[in-house]
């Protein structure tokens, strides 16, 4: 796992971990082995920046108290917890990137900082068109359809418009993420 980017390739990591835990749990001769595997998974997958100690202690205690009847439900609960925390981290990263300051006033003149002018315009385009969590599914679909039509129009000369096409595609992805629950891998 990359220490600087703990959520990098998280979907693949979670799917692999889920499959491994299910296989090991089936092969485990006793409940203690399954519990140890699950505790290890909790320590490895949940980013340290996104959990409070009480959350993890509560989860590990629940794993310790689990019996054979409740271990499958607990495995699902642990995965949902890990996924929701990783999604929260990624959403925070996206928001931080989009809130980047691109201009400052130096000596009475507006001057670009950190990114070039074209990138600043694309970030502004995403910020102006991004929907909120209060948006309905219909509003999201309508906004995405408008963006798809704009992408289609820009695709007539894709080399010149590649950056804008990518920005609009990212916007569609961000808006689509509002339709999803934060508990699925």
Question: Can you describe this structure?
Answer:
The chain is mainly alpha-helical and about 180 residues long. It has two domains: about 10-95; about 100-175. The chain contains seven helices and two strands. The chain has helices at about 10-25, 30-45, 55-65, 70-100, 115-130, 135-155, 160-175, and strands spanning about 105, 110. A two-stranded antiparallel sheet has the order 1-2. Helix 2 (about 30-45) runs antiparallel to helix 3 and helix 6 packs antiparallel against helix 7 (about 160-175). It is elongated and about 65 Å long. It starts with 9 loop residues before the first helix and ends in an 8-residue tail after the last helix. The mean pLDDT is about 80.
Keywords:
elongated; two-stranded antiparallel ribbon; mainly alpha; 185 residues; 2 domains; 7 helices; single chain
Strand and helix layout:
Layout: H1 10-27, H2 31-45, H3 53-65, H4 71-98, E1 103-106, E2 109-112, H5 117-129, H6 137-154, H7 162-177
Antiparallel strand pairs: 1-2
Helix pairs in contact: 1-2, 1-4, 2-3, 2-4, 5-7, 6-7
């Amino acid at each position: 796992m990359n220490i600087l980017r703990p959520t990098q390739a998280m979907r693949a990591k979670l799917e692999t971990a889920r499959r491994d835990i299910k296989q090991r749990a089936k092969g485990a001769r006793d409940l203690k082995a399954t519990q140890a595997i699950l505790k290890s998974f909790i320590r490895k997958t949940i980013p340290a920046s996104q959990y409070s100690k009480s959350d993890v202690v509560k989860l590990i205690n629940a794993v310790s108290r689990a019996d054979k009847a409740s271990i499958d439900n607990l495995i699902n609960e642990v995965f949902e917890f890990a996924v929701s925390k990783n999604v929260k981290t990624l959403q925070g990263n996206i928001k931080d990137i989009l809130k980047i300051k691109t201009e400052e006033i130096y000596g009475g003149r507006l001057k670009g900082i950190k990114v070039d002018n074209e990138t600043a315009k694309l970030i502004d385009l995403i910020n102006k068109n991004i929907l909120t969590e209060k948006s309905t599914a219909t509003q999201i679909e309508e906004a995405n359809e408008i963006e798809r039509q704009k992408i289609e129009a820009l695709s007539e000369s894709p080399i010149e418009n590649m950056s804008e096409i990518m920005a609009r595609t990212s916007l569609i992805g961000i808006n689509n993420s509002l339709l999803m629950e934060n508990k699925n891998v």
